Amino acid sequence: MVKISTFLCVVFCLSVPDQSFAKHLKPIVNQHYISSKTTSSDSVKNTKSMLFYFGAAKTAKGILIDKPSEFSASSSYGFDFNSASNVKINSNNFSVTKPAYFSVAVPEGNYQIEVTMGSSEKASNVTIKAESRRLMLDQLSIKKGQKVTKIFNVNVRNIKIDDQTKISLKDREKEILNWDNKLTLEFLGDVAIQSIKITPKDNLTVVYLAGDSTVTDQDVEPWASWGQFITNYFDNTVVVANYAYSGSALSSFKGANRLKKILSEIKKGDYLFVEFGHNDEKIKGEGNGAWGSYSDLLKEFVQSAKDKGAIPVLVTPTQRRAFNENGTLKETHGDFPAAMRAVAQKNNIALIDITKITTELYEAWGVEPSRKGFVQYPANTFPGQEKALDDNTHFNSFGANEIALCVVKGIRELDIPLKKQIKKEVPDYNPKKPNYISSWTLPMSDRYEITKPDGN
Question: What angle, rounded to 10 degrees, do the helices at 295-307 and 258-265 form?
């Protein structure tokens, strides 16, 4: 594996202390919690928040950070990944010469993050990603002298299910930010961050994602998936818990105890989105196939969610970029989309036909423009990349965001309450009139991996 980990993004990491130093961190964390009767978007009483102010002026509120101290195992917060030297503490905010990371110890759970931004000296343009590059705020422009607060929710988790059971991670997953015992907020652009408030939330609608490499939070550039971009399109009553992982099929997802972990947490009114097919197609033998184990496991997944009072949503697999000579798309998934449609119809389950929608999308782009949505780059585009990247399955950030918009379109067409929790400012999306990469300006993270994700 070739991995370049030069961190140039400002990241705010809320870390879950592992057992080796949890005893040391926990008292530090507790002394910094401040009581809050209510928050700006919630009526839950007596919640506890952690509040950080950045600047030189002392304040009675929360924790004042007046110098860019490093995070370490002996502290509960600080700038991380050797990025403190990139940070400048100003009178009432921090700015960066290069992106940087900040870490704080918190337990597993869902958190509402309030970030207050702005500078009296210059305009700002802020992008925020969380954990493994989940998009939370897309290039917010702030005028000089303007103060803006944005709110979003982040899921923090670990592999433990109970005292005897845990999720089995792939070796490659053990290094990624989603599982590193930290919640990570990544700040990119011309940032001016005045304060960050972190509040535990137990009354959010949780959207659980079960899927493969086309769904998972891809940890590093240039790979990306729709699950890490759809986070930017829900309002602050929703949090996304993405358990998808590269190379997974329904059977391996269940075998790794991911479904069991979800079912240990999912509650009435939550959602379970299920998208598989790319890797299930490779499982051969008697009893397998689209109309065998694939259909049976789909029924098990959706019934398990229904038994918990949650709402299952089936999502047919994204198309591969494989064109016929006449510019139409080839059917590469065989009977698997049809089998999922049949399970949905027979069991009265909500369905988003992403196979159909992405067919329309790719054909609207055409053969050559569609390359811009996938990981297709000439040699030496990224550090250490000696050979061209030519992938027709995995998306880059632009392509992943387009797929996320396709999923949002599908949600809006369903009779489920979640469609009312999509941000009102998100425009309707027409895959036959897609966006083009020429209008895509999202800053890239500066962590790269040349090796493609598992699965095809």
Answer: 20
